[in-house]
Amino acid sequence: MRPCECGGMHEKRQGPLEIDDRYVGLLKLESADYYECPDCKDRIYPLDTARVIESEREKITGEILQAQPLDAFLSAADTAAQLGISRQALHKNKRIRQGFIYRTSLGGLAVYLKKSVDLYREKGDGRFLLSELGYNRSNEPFSTGRTIETVYSVHER
User: 118 φ, ψ to 5°?
Assistant: First the structure.
């Protein structure tokens, strides 16, 4: 269908999909549409599939951050002070808003992960493998853990 850099052709696939995400670990989808090169295994994701992947990545990131102790976070004022910028500049910074510093909400206020702030200050990117935080999550296909299970199936129209 679509040419690949290796010289092969991407072929449309439908079925279970596993992605080894560099920040949250293994993501599993029960069923998804995607294109894969049979030679080099390069993948291309349709927009609907990419949205589900991103949504699940954000959900897992939120779960991991919410499981951390309160003292692992800094307030917006403390984060801005450590970065040498104003709180307004912190909240408007495109890279920070795009997730280059891990943040979550506690009591309706944005808080920032200390380790992520330190990395951002040193390297300009505060992202790291979240499994380093010691959070153990199941690698089972997505389910809410409640009586009603949610399983994503993504297919092109």
Answer: -60, -45
Domain edges within the chain:
2-67+141-154, 70-133
Give the Cα separation of 146 and 106 in Å (integer).
Answer: 23
From CA 100, how far away is CA 95, in angstroms rounded? 6
pLDDT in tens, 24-53: 888 888 889 999 988 888 899 999 999 999
- Would you give the distance in Å from CA 32 to the centre of its chain? 18
Low-confidence ranges of the chain (pLDDT < 70): 1-2, 134-157
Tokens representing residue 114 in the block: 């200390």
Is residue 121 a contact partner of residue 111, using CB atoms and an 8 Å limit?
Answer: no
